# Entry
Amino acid sequence: MEIYLDANATTPVLPQAKAAAIQAMVEDYGNPSSIHSTGLKAKALIDGVRARAQRLLDTGDGALLFVSGATEGIQTAVLSALNSMRGNLQADLLLYGATEHKAVPEALKHWNQVLGLNLQIMAIPVDTQGRHDLAFLRQHAPRAGLVCTMAANNETGVISDLDGIESALAGSKALWLVDGVQALGKLPLRLQARRIDYAPFSGHKLYAPKGIGLLYVRAGAPFTPLMAGGGQEGSLRSGTENMSGIAALGAVLAALDDGQTLRDAATMHSFRDRLAEALCEAFPGLVFNAPLGSSLPTTLNFAVPGLSSRLLQDLFDAADVRVSGGSACSAAKAAPSFVLQAMGLPDWQAAGAVRLSIGPAVDEAFVDEACARIRACGESLRRHCLSPANNFPTIGDGITRFMQDGACCYLLADSLSKTCVLIDARPEQVCRLAQALTCQGYPLLAVLSSTGEAEHAEARELLADTLPALMPTAQVDALGWPMDRATIVLGEQELTRQSSSQGQVLLLGKTGAASPAIAFTGLSLPAELSAWVAAATLLAPGRDEAQQVALTLASAAQDQDASVQQVQGAQLKAFVNFHPDALLVDVREPYEQFLSQTPDLSGAQLEAMPLSRLLNAILPWLTEQPQRPLLFFCRTGNRSRQAALALSRLGHAQAWTLAGGLALLPTAARPKHQPDPALYV
Ligand code: PLP
# Structure
């Protein structure tokens, strides 16, 4: 079962809202402008929903228009305000809160330009708690024609001090837009009592479908329609009304009214406290990015030292818990949250932010399950040596690749001799590496650099400070190689080196073998490489922006890239039936695999081979199973595509990727494997 904790992005549609929408589409499908009975019924429905919304939002004699959503409401309000400012010589400034949803500053810029006003646009700074700087506002309000401040922030849940803002606006003629999107159903806005001129709302943030919203306009506030046409909504917003959306929104408002379906603020506070407690327990050292006391009880925004936002999102997603990083819009880019930056939070908090948000329809059982899953995420981190505290010891074996902004660091571990070697570590990775090395507990035989870069030496020194007991004791040269030996023996394998113009190429292979299995080549392939490696030797690069994982001499010389063979989710069963010998390879990381609780795909053979450890499997697949279909899968299809491309490029004829990943599979078809208990001691 999915635990959806991303209600600030959007919410599911309430069953009664769905029923009302279907009724409006299928039975009561009239056009409210028609004067026959079917039309009159539709008109009565609109009037009823509007009257309820007016009462709930306390709009007094202001207008309440049905629009497509908050973005349209914001455009309409901004256009109206800016159009009224033409020729007004006293106001030459537009103000908006620094943490507003992008729809607000973008609308200000857009209409300022389209209307040719060239007004100055300024952000009102916020403090570290996310509250507007009221002194700044008071100082600039006399020059302002429009002031835009949200009621509550979508990323942090921080509630704005609307009374403070109102008093800072005293004496100013500025119009005031309050973005009410995140407040709907959670905070009373007292639209009538306050001097708010415009307030947009969006239905899909409160259990109505996407495509329906409301715009409040104070009686007497300037208004310019965004849409002209058939004269609907008293000519304030033309276009045939979205009747199914209005009907659904009406059902949500009725649920707000009945006091049964949606939880009150006190219950939501108790739910939030429980979620916060589970988070703090699961992730030692976690910090909340906004004070809980002045935030909506439906939003928690946090960061965990040493864990990226991306890693945490992957972790939650593997546990079937949906959260977002910062905000939904910025989640696809790994950019730090501008909201948290505006609050002056440290970079690691702004870049590592995760947002967890619930809606008022959740119940006790849902919160129980959410807390249990959050704790399971913490358990997975501890078992995989990623928790900020209390990690389990782990057995290390084989090669693990750690990526940092395209640079590759390799940890070579041997479980027989209980020793390891590190290649090309960078200072930013030292915390993570020190954690992994501590859990593994093997002494380091060498901390090597393939290129002699200063960062590698710096990382070696930092590691020596952090883990003195695990560091090699022998004298080493500038590249970290122990002076007293020509080979480094790692159990049944040995590491040798060849000097190159950029540093050294490190060659790993079975002791006594004719050629190395893997060569760590550094930044570029030296001309002499073909004398040191065989055709089948895998070349592991020092940087891998192109996400190739490994090359061979032959594949490095090819100028055409391999193409990838895809299996669509709907064809997965047929693929497995057609290829009974296929191996399905899960390339997600172990901390994700551990949490995956998905049903069996009958008959399929499965193997867990995280992308970070793919180098260990490539040679056996290429040499022992060159014809066996390998179907790689992961959460979204990105990592499995990389793996399949790498294998194809290296000459495997049957490497496939599951397009779209597990995310697009019907739940019943998802492969399952148990975490391997042998990996934990
Ligand atoms: N304002 C806020 C505070 C929001 O959270 C959002 C949506 O995330 C919007 C405006 C835009 O709403 P919509 O995309 O529904 O138009």
